[in-house]
Each structure stands twice: as C-alpha cells, then as structure tokens.
C-alpha cells in the first residue's frame, strides 16, 4: 500500500512544482528578441539618432536616444553581426556595410 501511495504522490508533486514555476505574465524588456546587438552608429550631426544592428538580421533605429526604437523594413535592409550604418555628409544619404 505504501508503494502505491508513492507512485501516485510523486507525479502530483513533480507536475505541481512545474506549474508553480511558470511566470504569471510576460513583460517586454526592449529590443533584441534574443539576438545580440552589434555596431551602433551614432549620427555625428544629431547624437539622439542612431542605428544598431542585430545578428538575427534586424537593424534598429532610434530618433530619441533610445527611448523608443523602430525596425528598418527587411525589404530595405537585412543586417547581421557585421552590419554597420555609416553616415555621409549628404543629408538623408546613409550607407550600410554588410
């Protein structure tokens, strides 16, 4: 009888502890999505604007020194860990080294 109780009690304790271990809610912590960020490029004419490349292909852009970010459309640019946005002396013209 004791072995029968152990067989029933062990899975209840095991699965009960797994259910309790899960977080109750999800909280976003910012950009990245699991990838690492590389090669930040700060605009020399306006230091509140910069670009950051991710090794998963995204390139992020901020206009307010990181308070909010937007992602460059993948049809325009697919980055990587070696990608770096370069600013030019021509307003509105940017280059990206891939």
Can you walk through the features of this model?
The protein is an alpha+beta fold and 98 residues long. It has a domain at 35-98. The chain contains one helix and six strands. Strands 1-2-3-4 form a four-stranded antiparallel sheet, with no helix packed on it. A two-stranded antiparallel ribbon has the order 5-6. Strand 2 (50-54) and strand 3 form a beta hairpin. The termini are far apart. The mean pLDDT is 80.
Major sheet characteristics: 4 strands, antiparallel
- Provide the helix percentage: 10-25%
The value of Rg in angstroms is 24 Å
The number of distinct β-strands equals 6
What is the N-to-C succession of helices and strands? Answer: HEEEEEE
Question: So how many helices?
Answer: 1
**Would you tell me the structural class of the helices and strands?**
alpha+beta
